[in-house]
Design brief:
Number of helices: 1
Order of helices and strands: HEEEEEEEEEEEEEE
Oligomer: single chain
Largest sheet: 12 strands, antiparallel
Distance between the termini: 54 Å
Structural class: mainly beta
Helix content: under 10%
CATH topology: Porin
Strand content: over 45%
CATH class: Mainly Beta
Number of strands: 14
Radius of gyration: 41 Å
Number of domains: 1
CATH architecture: Beta Barrel
Length: about 300
């Protein structure tokens, strides 16, 4: 009986231990800690290049003679002077620039453009008396070419985007170099009084240029062709300030060299098409994230 009792107790212990071992085998594995992958946040580079081409829809200039025709001198007593507003023909202009898209509603750029020669034409009429009692009426026609180089710093406000179309408004300030070339002076005079006479007059102005303040107001529509390419259709009012000729050379008459033709204000209403090319796509930037544990 003693030996059987011992064997029975040993078998009982083995059987009792089986569930314990099985339960130990079913425990979950020890937790492992893994670093979560870093998400990539997108950051846009705002630098861009731009190009523009356009045409002036309407140009005009106010002008005068320097010295003024109503300033008298020995043997010259002016009594009336009038000048028509100068007509400036339409011209084509091209421009290049670079800028930066600050955020989704504001951008700024620096542009330079060349405005091709426009035909400048004007008429004037002068009435004066001389010391001999003769009254003379002089009608003069002027014609020449006006061109400009314009540099502007511009700012734009984008008003929102719908179906890829973004309306915008803007303004710019800068400088303009206006040049007048090939200006001719053609006239006809008729005198009455003590020494009546009639005939033609003429001459030409030397080329002249002037650098002065320029400013602009703009509005238009932009279209997203792609993430990099933007097209623009816009209107611009541009004021390039003053322009001047060189001295006047009169045919057969001395002493005209101090006379110059000066425009007081050159204005243009422009229609233009522009292109903006972003220098880079969105670039991935890594940001550290909190540690995440996985079980």
């Amino acid at each position: 009986m003693g030996r059987f009792h011992v064997l029975f107790l040993a078998a009982t212990a083995v059987v009792a231990g089986l569930p314990v071992a099985h339960a130990a085998d079913m425990l979950p594995p020890r937790p492992q800690f893994e670093e979560a992958p870093r998400p990539m946040a997108l950051e846009t580079s705002g630098w861009y290049l731009r190009g523009d081409i356009g045409m002036s829809a309407d140009q005009s200039a106010k002008w005068d003679m320097v010295p003024g025709r109503l300033v008298g001198s020995a043997g010259y007593n002016p009594t009336a002077y009038s000048a028509s507003k100068a007509h400036v023909s339409n011209n084509v202009f091209v421009g290049l620039g670079f800028g930066y898209q600050v955020n989704n509603w504001f951008r700024a750029d620096v542009t330079g453009e060349y405005r091709g020669a426009s035909r400048f034409s004007s008429n004037s009429e002068l009435t004066f008396d001389d010391t001999a009692g003769t009254t003379t009426v002089l009608r003069t026609f002027n014609r020449g070419d006006l061109s400009s180089m314009v540099g502007l710093v511009n700012g734009y406000i984008d008003l929102g985007t719908w179906a890829g179309v973004t309306p915008f408004v803007g303004a710019g300030v800068g400088v303009a170099r206006n040049k007048i070339d090939g200006m001719i002076d053609q006239g006809f005079y008729a005198s009455t009084g003590v020494a009546p006479a009639s005939g033609t007059t003429g001459g030409y102005y030397a080329s002249g240029s002037k650098v002065n303040f320029a400013w602009a107001l703009m509005a238009g529509l932009g279209y997203d062709v792609s993430s990099r390419l933007k097209l623009e259709l816009g209107y611009r009012y541009l004021n390039t300030g003053k322009a001047t000729t060189g001295g006047l050379t009169c045919y057969g008459v001395a002493g005209c060299g101090t006379t110059r033709l000066v425009t007081k204000s050159n204005e243009s209403h422009d229609i233009k098409i522009g292109m903006r090319w972003m220098l880079s796509d969105s670039a991935p930037v890594m940001h550290d994230m909190p540690l995440v544990r996985k079980y």
